[in-house]
Amino acid sequence: MHVNSTTEEKEIVTQQKSKLGVRLFFVYLICYAGFVAIGVFNYELLSTTVFYGLNLAIAYGIGLIVFAVIMGIIYNSYCTRYEDKAEKAEGGLK
To answer: Residues 23-61: pLDDT tens digits?
Structure first.
C-alpha cells in the first residue's frame, strides 16, 4: 500500500508540474505573439525609441528573454514546493 501511495504522489506532482508548465507556456506564447504581431502588422512601430535610446524591437526582445528567465525561476520554485510537499506527505506515511 505504501508503494502505491508513493506512486500516486509522484503522479500528482507530475500532473501539477505539467499544468503549471503549460500555463506558463501559454502566457509566454501570448507575449511572444504580441511581438510577432507588431512585426507583421506594424513593423514601423518597432523602430520607435522607447527608452535610453533603445528601439521597441530591442527592448521587447530583451524583455522577452528576461521574462523567460523569470518564468523559469517561478516554474522551478513552484515545482520545488510541489516536490517538498509530496516528500512531507510521504514521510508522514512511513
So the answer is: 999 999 999 999 999 999 999 999 999 989 999 999 999
In the numeric block, which cell numbers belong to residue 3? 508503494
Q: Looking at the predicted structure, is the pLDDT value of residue 1 above 60?
A: no
Ramachandran region, residue 70 (left: φ > 0; alpha: ψ -120 to 50; beta: rest):
alpha
Distance CA 87, CA 54 (A): 47
Length of the chain: 94
Q: Partners of 51 in the beta sheet?
A: 54
Q: CA 79 → CA 15, 18, 19, 29, 40, distances in Å?
A: 11, 10, 11, 21, 36
Residue 46 gets which letter from DSSP? G
In a 10 Å sphere around its CB, with 0-12 CB exposed, 13-18 middle and 19+ buried, how is residue 65 labelled? exposed
pTM of the model: 0.81
